[in-house]
Amino acid sequence: MAEARISVLCSGNGTNLQALIDSCASDAPGSIRGKIIKVTVNRKSAYATTRAEKAGIPTDYFNLVKDGYHALGEKDPAKLREARLRYDTALAERILKDRPDLIVLAGWMHILTTNFLEPISEAGVPIINLHPALPGCYDGAGAIDRAYEDFKAGKLQDNTTGIMIHYVIAEVDRGEPILVQKIKIEEGDSLEDLEQKIHGYEHELIVKATALLADKIAAAKVSET
């Protein structure tokens, strides 16, 4: 059976990765018609590595400092920028060696430059990401906190925030949305309550979006044979 080859990039605990692993292993309707071929992490402490290894998925720990792109504690902005560009070029080469059909950022805490995005785009491989905000709102880090601050200040439209899965482009969190989930903040909700609400939807949404694209990829492979 045709299936999508999926490369996943993580930086942390890997709960969204686990949801993807479980769905790929399931035969239930709506599960992902794909195989995770590699999990790349950029932090040594990322528990995502353990999750991948338990599932028999190859891993790659690739880090700016460990792999010699800049020195530990480097502060020079020019050197950091140059290191980031060289790292992203090398990261794209490493990812493309596995011939993925789809790249999923599942808690990848590193903004990707065009040195990564352009060769991936040229190879025809889509990249998707989960962002805990609605399209056009709270780009970048701290999205949940900023939405909650606006809610407390009475500035959050309809007291509603959300999450989205979107295509990754050079403009941070501005790629075309694939799936969107609105989340209402109720009076009395704490920041922790909101975080729990958002995390409760994340796993479902990242699986749905990945399954949607994997289905299209698998169908295209069938039509080519």
Notes on the protein architecture:
The protein is built from six helices and seven strands, in the order βαβαβαβαβαββα. With about 220 residues, it is an alpha/beta fold. It has a seven-stranded mixed β-sheet. Helix 1 links the parallel strand 1 and strand 2. Helix 1 packs parallel to helix 6 and helix 3 packs parallel to helix 4. The radius of gyration is 18 Å and the shape is globular. The N and C termini lie close together (about 10 Å). The mean pLDDT is about 95.
Silhouette:
globular
Q: Termini separation (Å)?
A: 11 Å
Share in helix: 40-55%
Class from helix and strand fractions: alpha/beta
**Which percent band covers the strand fraction?**
15-25%
* Main pleated sheet: 7 strands, mixed
Low-confidence stretches: none
Strand order of the largest sheet: 3-2-1-4-5-6-7
Mean pLDDT, rounded to whole units? 94
Give me the number of helical elements: 6
Order of secondary-structure elements = EHEHEHEHEHEEH
Instruction: Specify Rg, calculated over alpha carbons.
Output: 18 Å
* Oligomerization status of the protein chains: single chain
| Extended strand count | 7
